[in-house]
Amino acid sequence: PRSAMDHQPKFFENLSGAGKAIGVLTSGGDAQGMNAAVRAVVRMGIYVKAKVYFVYEGYQGMVDGGDNIVEVSWESVSSILQVGGTVIGSARCKSFRTREGRLQAAYNLVQRGITNLCVIGGDGSLTGANLFREEWSGLLEELAQTGKIDAESVKKYAYLNIVGMVGSIDNDFCGTDMTIGTDSALHRIIEVVDAIMTTAQSHQRTFVLEVMGRHCGYLALVSALACGADWVFIPEYPPEEGWEDTMCVKLSQNRARKKRLNIIIVAEGAIDCHNKPITSEKVKDLVVQRLGFDTRVTILGHVQRGGTPSAFDRILASRMGVEAVLALLEATPATPACVVSLSGNQAVRLPLMECVQMTQEVQKAMDEGRFLEAVRLRGRSFENNLNTYKLLSHKKPDAELPKTNFNVAVLNVGAPAAGMNAAVRAAVRVGITEGHKMFAVIDGFEGFARGKIKEISWGDVGGWTGQGGSILGTKRTLPAKYLEKIAEQMRTNNINALMVIGGFEAYLGLLELSAAREKYDEFCVPMVMVPATVSNNVPGSDFSIGADTALNTITDTCDRIKQSASGTKRRVFIIETMGGYCGYLANMGALAAGADAAYIFEEQFDIRELQANVEHLTEKMKTSIQRGLVLRNENCNENYTTDFIYQLYSEEGKGVFDCRKNVLGHMQQGGAPSPFDRNFGTKIAAKAMQWISKKLKETYRKGKVFANTDDSVCLLGMRRRNLVFQPVAELKTETDFVHRIPKEQWWLKLRPLMKILAKYKTSYDVSDSGQLEHVAMLPKEAVPAPI
To answer: Which of 30, 170, 230, 313 is catalytic?
Structure first.
C-alpha cells in the first residue's frame, strides 16, 4: 500500500448527489451478486443525497415505464445481500433494440428526472446502454418536436451519464479480472465436482461434466484447475489434431497409476481446431468405445447461476456499486460511458466501448482460428490459468524430464488453512517437471528436526486440491530451538532449497533460519514462503491462502443467524471471529454479511462508540428491519470482551431488543477449500517453485548450492495487481511483531464502505479511484502474472 505521504487523501464528502436521480437496472442473464451491487448503488446513492430509482425487468421496464420505474428507500434493499439472482428482475428486450423503444424509454426517464443510469449486465446490455447515451440528445429533441416534453426539459436533462458493472457468470468481459457472479458459479461447480468425485471413486468411473460458457472457457478452465481434472475442453484453446488418441492414452495411464476415477470438463462452447463442436456426449462415446470405461455425463446447466452469492462476489459487488455511484457523481458530459471493475485487488474505471471492442475481438479471433491470439486477448489472468493447468495436469515420461540433482523440501507451518494441500500439490508437480527430487516434511519444523521427511512423487499428491486442512500435518513450533537438528536433517537428506507454506510462524521461521546462516552453512540455500493462514495477517501480501474459505464460512453462518434473528424479531447477534489481532475476517465478514458493526483491533474504539452503536441499533428497531448483527475480532480489545459487549448490549437494549452471542471458533479453519483458495494456492506455489529453480541455478557453484544473500530468502505475495517476491529481511520494517500484523493493511480502506452500507456517517478516502484508465494489451514480456 502507498504510504500516507504519497498522496493527499481526497474524500467524497464534497461530492454531493443532491438534485441528481440515479436509475439502477439489471439486464441480460442473471448472476449471483447482482443484488449486492443493487444494494450498494441504492444505499450509496441515498447516502450522497441523490434520488435512486429501481428499473424493474431491465430495459423492458424502462420502455414500459409506469410501475416499472419506482423511487426506492434505504429499507427497500434490506435482506437482499444473501439472495442469488436479481430481485429487480431481468428480461431480454426486443423493443429497446428499436429507436421507437429507446424513444419511449427516454420519455419515461425524463418524466422522473433520471439522467444517471447504472447498468448491471453483460456486454450486450452495456453496448445497448452506450448507444442509448449517444442517441440521448437526439431522442429528447424528437420528444420536444412531438410535444411530449417541453424545451426546458431538453435543456435541463441534456446529458445521460452511464456507468456499467459486469454481471456475468462466464467472466467473458475483457478489462475486468472477475465479473460479478463468476466466483459463485465456480462455488456451484466445485460443490458438484467434489460430490461426484466420491461416487466416481467408489465405482471407478469416468465423469464428463459440462459447464456453462458458450463463448468463454473461464469456468471450465478454472474448475479443471481447482479439482485437478484429467482433461478440459474450452473454446479458446481447442485440442490439437489427433486429440482423441492423446486423451485416451492419458486416461488409461492415469488408471494404470492406480487412479480410480477420471474427470473431464467440457465447456458448452468447446470446439476442435476446425471450429466443429465437441459435445459432452461425443467425449463420453469416445471413452466408452476406445477404453470401455464406465462413463457418465453430468450437465450442470442453470445450477451454476443459482444459489447464494459467495463472500467474494458480495464484496466485489459492494465495492463496485459504491464506485459506480462515485463515477456517476464525477461524470461530466465529456466523460465516456465507463465500466467499474477490478484489476488485481484494485478498483478501476475503464471506457465501456474499449472493453466491448476487445471482448468482440476475442470472438473474432476464435472464429478465424487465431486461437493463441484469443487466449492472449482474454487477458493475463486467463493465460496464466491455462499455463498453470498445462503444467500440472500432464506428467511427462521420466525419460523426457530434465535431471538437476537438486533436492527441494516442502513443509507446512502454523495453523491449518484450507488450500495448503493445493499449494503442496502444485509445488511438488512443478518441482518434478523442473527436474528436482521433491521431499515432504511432516509436522512442520518439529517434524523436520525429528527426521520426519520422505520423498514425494507426482502420484502421491493426486486429488489433494479439494482436501481441507493440512495433509502433511502442521505445527506452530518455530525452528530456533531445533536449529542443530534441522541443519543435520538438511545435511543428511542433502536439501538444496526450502519451500514453507504457512502463516505468521512461517515468516518468523524463515527470519530465524536466515539469521542462523552465519553458524550453519546448511541454511545457505534458497528459501521461499507462500502465505497460508485464515487470519490474512502476513506482511507483504494482500491475500493469504485459506482466508477466502474462512470468510465464506463466516458469511454462511451469519446468513443463517440473520435468518433466525429475522424470525424472532428485535434480536441482535454478537459474533466473534478468529484472526488474532488482525481484523480482516471480522471486517470483510461484516461487509459480506451486511453487519451493523465490526469491532477490530486496528481501529481503537471506546465506550462512547459502543454506546453510539447501541443507539444506532435502537433506531434501526423502529424501522421494518428488526434485527442486528455485530462482529467482533477475538483480540480487538482485552477488556471489551465478547461477553462484555454482549452484556452491555443486553442491558442498554432492554425493552427494545434482546441479545445472543456466538463464538465461531475453529470451524473457520476447516472445510473444503473455496475455488479461490484452490486456485490461488495452486498458482502462487507453482510460481514460487519456478523461482526456486531459478535461484538454484544462480547459486550453484563448484558442485554445491551456496546462497547467503537477503534476496535468497523471499516471501511471495499478492500486492495490489501483481505477485511479487520480497526478501523477508526487508519486510521486517513493515511488521508489527508484538501483534503479529502488517503495519499497513489495504482492507482498512474498505472500513468506511461497511459503515456507509450500515447507515453510519463516515468519511471515505477515494484517492485511489477516479481516473479513467485504458484497456491495455501490453507486450507479453511486460506483463507480471496476476491471480
So the answer is: 170
